[in-house]
Design a protein that fits this description.
- The complex is a heterodimer of chains A (318) and B (284).
- Chain A has 318 residues and is of the alpha/beta class.
- Chain A folds into two domains: 223 residues, Rossmann fold, CATH 3.40.50; 58 residues, 2-Layer Sandwich (Alpha-Beta Plaits).
- Chain A has ten helices and 13 strands.
- In chain A, a hairpin with a 2-residue loop joins β8 and β9.
- The longest helix of chain A has 21 residues.
- Chain A is globular and about 70 Å long.
- The two termini of chain A are 41 Å apart.
- The longest helix of chain B is centred in the middle third of the chain and has 36 residues.
- Chain B has one domain.
- Chain B is mainly α and 284 residues long.
- The chains are: A alpha/beta (318), B mainly alpha (284).
- Chains A and B meet through α2, α3 and α5 of A and α1, α6 and α7 of B.
């Protein structure tokens, strides 16, 4: 899976995000439990989990904003809080709302850049890159959520950092913005950077990430490539449109597939590949009008795994 | 098209990182303060309010001068000119305004969530808070000095119309100006410290006013224990420094000018320390 991306450039071995038995408790509640994983350079790594799974708490611990109850977390080999200045090491967008609405976009970025001794010209560069050059002198209070996301991403890029962290960056973005963000993340990873992106929607990650870290109820569920993760699910699903739904259903069921009627002449098949369905239909002279493979199994895999974790957790507690 | 401009070099270990300097943090906080329109407006309005209170009282003195049956010499000997130069009410306004501005510098970052952006950019939390305290102290000292100087100049010019004004060289005049000027940064730092501890705009504003205004009004200095408490607070210290001649009738437990300056200095040091300690160990 990673092979289709540019290989990590030399000298990037150190710039990993490394969590070791990371745990955060708030009183009786354990938000993050015993989390151990590594986020490597050269990939866009998706950080997935249902709402309340502990994603934001984990990201805050990575950034040294929250102190772990136990365990350790380092970025490029050091706890982030030990850095005197952060922007050249990690660029982060935690919440697009973490800005003061009374400032202009340019002023917000200028202050951040100044604090890290980043040249002023860099502000203009990241504003142009984020498509905010025209609104640079406007106050952030008037920005839409999508524009704030762009501003947050611009801020993360200020220090040209080897590690980038984004918490739900696609929220509120229009389709053009989503496309821009995906291309940006891919190109950042292709340059050998570590890109760690959280989301609660598998569908968002499907076309963005190539590595996945999935958590549920604060615990690790999976840490693997997108393909391996997809293989955990109930297999690919295939949509088939045919004038002879009865015969095809019988045929495919006989060949080991699970066939569910969708709408009208449309069937949803799992357990058989599109190739195999096409072959069987051809052999039995059944006409097919449409044959589509869906990657929806990723979403299925995600739902199954996280649902299991939720049930397990709930059962354990009672 | 997809490459993030030509600005990116190949990222490795950020070798070219310049040495971290405290003055960059000062500059950043300076930019943050002045990039908010509310800063200029609140300083302008509070400054005008303080000056208006002083000038108003002085105009009143001047206007009804002939009904008072006091000679200019008597008026000056009783401390009248310096009392009008910076009135007690103006002192209250100054403390409330500066305290609110100071607490907002911190609580607005918590209210908006900006504090997380700030601390993710500069993980050295103590330095961030020290820079905030320094910028606040400098700006509010300049503000206080300007307001106190204008107040003195205008009030004495008005009083000189009835030959009852004094010059800066008059004994105690400079101290009145200095103590009144410093009341601004002192109150701002106390507000900022309470803002950092409480992290909530309303709570910080109420407690700042309580500490600076309400408690000093509530404690009388007619008992030894309450006089001790009063003499540890900023407002009574300012009163001590601006009351010329001293002690005036009814003072039960007089204290020294040096003692009052020590109280000023103590709060000015304690407040930044509280700011730094408050953010250092808590989750943000």
């Amino acid at each position: 899976m990673a092979g289709c991306r540019a290989a990590p450039v030399q000298g990037t071995v150190g710039q990993v995000i490394e969590l070791n038995q990371l745990t955060k408790r708030y009183g009786q509640t354990t938000a993050v439990r015993d989390l151990t994983f590594t986020v490597r350079p050269g990939h866009v790594t998706g950080f997935l989990g249902p709402n309340g799974a502990g994603k934001s708490t984990t990201l805050r611990m990575i950034l040294g904003l929250n102190t772990p109850s136990s365990g350790t977390v380092t970025v490029s080999g050091r706890p982030f809080r030990d850095r005197t200045r952060g922007l050249r090491h990690v660029g982060a967008l935690l919440d697009a709302g973490d800005v003061h609405g009374g400032r202009t976009a340019a002023a917000h970025l200028a202050a951040l850049a100044r604090s890290n001794r980043i040249p002023r010209q860099r502000v203009g560069e990241v504003l142009r890159e984020a498509g905010l050059a025209d609104v640079a002198r406007r106050r952030i209070a008037g920005f839409s959520l999508g524009m704030r996301q762009r501003l947050g991403i611009a801020a993360a890029l200020l220090g040209d950092p080897p590690v980038l962290i984004f918490d739900e960056p696609l929220n509120g973005l229009d389709p053009e913005g989503v496309k821009w963000v995906r291309e940006l993340f891919r190109s950042l990873a292709a340059q050998g950077r570590t890109v760690f992106v959280s989301s609660h929607l598998m569908s968002e990650m499907e076309h963005t990430a190539d590595q996945l870290i999935v958590i549920g109820k604060g615990q690790l569920i999976a840490a693997e490539g997108l393909a391996e993760f997809a293989a955990r699910g109930s297999g690919l699903s295939v949509s088939v449109r045919t004038p002879d739904t009865g015969s095809l259903t019988a045929l495919l069921t006989g060949a080991g597939g699970v066939v569910q009627p969708a709408a009208g002449d449309l069937l949803t098949v799992t357990g058989l590949s599109a190739d195999r369905i096409s072959e069987l239909a051809f052999q039995h002279r059944i006409q097919l009008r449409e044959l589509t493979t869906h990657a929806a199994s990723l979403e299925d895999a995600f739902m199954q795994l996280t649902a299991a974790s939720v049930e397990y957790q709930a059962g354990e507690r009672r | 098209m997809t490459a993030p401009a030509a600005t990116t070099t190949i990222p490795g270990t950020p070798a070219a990182e310049p040495r971290a300097r405290f003055r960059d943090l000062i500059a950043a906080e300076w930019l943050k303060l002045w990039s908010l329109r509310s800063t200029r407006w609140s300083l302008l309005i509070s400054g005008l309010a303080v000056i208006a209170f002083n000038v108003g009282i002085t105009y009143n003195t001047h206007h009804y001068w002939h009904q008072q049956h006091v000679s200019p010499a008597q008026f000056i000997a009783q401390g009248g000119p310096l009392l009008d130069a910076f009135t007690t009410n103006a002192g209250f306004i100054m403390m409330i305004a500066a305290g609110a501005i100071g607490s907002l510098v911190i609580t607005s970052e918590y209210r908006t969530g900006l504090i997380r952006t700030t601390l993710a950019a500069v993980p050295a939390r103590r330095s961030v808070m020290a820079a905030k305290a320094a910028v606040l102290a400098v700006v509010m000292t300049a503000f206080g000095a300007l307001v106190a100087a204008i107040s003195f100049g205008v009030t004495q010019a008005i009083l000189s119309g009835v030959h009852a004004g004094v010059s800066v060289s008059y004994p105690g005049a400079l101290r009145v100006i200095a103590a009144s000027a410093l009341l601004a940064p002192l109150s701002a730092l106390v507000g900022a410290a309470l803002g950092a501890v409480l992290r909530n705009s309303a709570a910080a504003a109420v407690s700042t006013v309580t500490l600076l205004v309400i408690i000093p009004i509530a404690v009388s200095d007619s008992r030894h224990w309450s006089a001790l408490l009063a003499h540890a607070l900023p407002f009574p210290a300012w009163l001590r420094l601006t009351t010329v001649p001293y002690p005036q009738a009814g003072t039960h437990f007089p204290w020294t000018v040096a003692g009052a300056w020590v109280v000023f200095a103590g709060w000015a040091l304690l407040a930044p320390v509280a700011m730094v300690v408050a953010v250092q160990h808590r989750d943000q």
